[in-house]
Design goal:
Length: about 190
């Protein structure tokens, strides 16, 4: 019988679960912890390791697939695996009624994941995930961005919105102004 299940983060395991870099697995049949690795190979282009194991107690064999998990540290102190789906559902809420399709949401979540992974730490505070969402969302849809930012930054007054909108306007004006354009004007013959 082939029995495969995906492991969570090595970090998230109970203390003492890791022994010389090797996760101690419980047998799915008898829950015994002494299982011997009989085969180990990389899968998903090295993103995960598939291990064939044999239980020392009941002798049954099973397979584990281990992949390092990017953990998100929530304000409550609890960690959970980074989930692109969670990014998508959070942003989708902010995009309600906006012309943002599923494809754009997936692309945004992909960018967020890349930004978060590029940070180089295995445990990211949840507010940094939110921060990584703001930039791409601003490019995608300004209304959705305002909605998301208002929750993420806990806007408490109209002034908070006004300030954010002023920033958006300034940024938009900055992009629109082409320096060559300005240099051209006034430099020519007076008309
Ligand atoms: Zn067993």
């Amino acid at each position: 019988m082939s029995f495969a299940y995906r492991l969570g983060s090595v970090q998230a395991g109970p203390p003492g679960a890791v022994e010389s870099g090797e996760v101690r697995m419980r047998c799915p049949f008898c829950r015994h912890t002494d299982c011997k690795v009989i085969d180990s190979r990389e899968v998903d282009e090295g993103a995960a390791t598939r291990r064939r194991r044999s239980c020392q107690a009941c002798g049954k064999r099973f397979t584990t697939v281990e992949e390092p998990v990017l953990a998100v540290l929530k304000r409550s102190g609890v960690t959970e695996p980074f989930s692109r789906d969670k990014v998508v559902s959070g942003v989708r809420r902010a995009c309600q009624g906006r012309p943002v399709d599923e494809d754009a949401l997936q692309k945004l979540a992909h960018r967020v994941e890349e930004a978060v992974r590029a940070g180089g730490t295995a445990e990211i505070p949840s507010h940094e995930v939110g921060l990584a969402i703001l930039g791409p969302l601003k490019e995608l849809d300004e209304v959705a961005y305002l909605r998301f930012a208002s929750v993420y930054r806990s806007f408490s007054s109209i002034e908070d919105f006004e300030k954010e909108i002023a920033d958006l306007r300034r940024a938009a004006a900055g992009e629109a102004a082409d320096p060559r354009d300005r240099a051209g004007r006034g430099a020519g013959p007076a008309g």
